[in-house]
Amino acid sequence: MDNLAAAGFGQFKISVVMTRQNVPQLDALAGLAEHYGAQLRLTRLRPSGRGADTWEQLHPTAAQQRDLYHWLIDRPDVLTGDSFFHLSALGDPLEGLNLCGAGRVVCLIDPVGDVYACPFVIHDEFLAGSVRDRGGFAEVWAHSPLFEELRSPQSAGACASCGSFDACQGGCMAAKFFTGLPLDGPDPECVLGHGETALAALGAHAPLPSVRTITRVRSRSGSGARDEPRLGRRRGGQRGPVVRLMVADQPTARLERLAWPQVDGWGRTKLVVLPSARSSSTAPPPLDTDTRMAQSMADALAEARSDVTVAPPIAYGSSGEHAHFAGTLSMGTRSSPPS
Hints:
Blueprint: H1 2-6, E1 13-18, H2 26-36, E2 39-44, H3 55-58, H4 62-73, E3 108-109, E4 114-116, E5 127-130, H5 136-143, H6 145-151, H7 165-168, H8 173-178, H9 194-202, H10 260-263, E6 271-273, H11 289-304, E7 308-310
Parallel strand pairs: 1-2, 6-7
Antiparallel strand pairs: 3-4, 4-5
């Protein structure tokens, strides 16, 4: 931040995830942003990704949520996005988006082109389509059955009898999903305590870790039709999602699967793509996650273009900055460019 200020970068954002440890530091955070002429942005700790293992210990207490609400009411210039609309059940609505933005104003496109409604839930149940399908992103955004469902009036479900539903809209879908609560149930951090009651009924003590799902969903018969997930389809009363990490369907355009006579005579008629990644991870997914993602993107290119063949990946790169994470393998910058 000192370097940005010294370089005259202009107003940058300081983004802080709120936990029970730093809620008491709200004034200090605001002072830090003011010192640098920066914009303060507060976001909610959600029980997904690396937050899955620590959410139970780190999410703000009920009393801290009330303190945070009143602090934000007094500071409408602090950005929050759609992080804290569940707090609006305490009184006046906060500044910002006071409803879940998933599929309405935000979505996420992963490295292989799959489009998910919620940036925090990279899971098949929130998969809306793919930019690789006919019509691309515009078709997914405008006509995905999942997005259409999210944009339609939502059932209050278990919150129907609560007079605050119109204010909080039932809370965050991602938080409910990863703690095993039904999507039409209360937010696990419901300020009126309904989430705690629902979690106790499940016998829940901590959310299950989530793993990014890397899949390829193929169109049927080339028509662009897709199997569309529906919200609320939780199977077997499981807590959290059933997660899996897998590479896309293995194509035949893999160089290592060809005999030399098949390659002989290619000349300059073929483009060979060499996936390059690194073996390191700062989160729960396996150490070869980056390699699988690079391989999947190369396979997608080979599927789209008949002149492309995919070479075996180079799974090692320059990852010295992750050396403090166990399992990291780094060749250094002299042997390999940063990956």
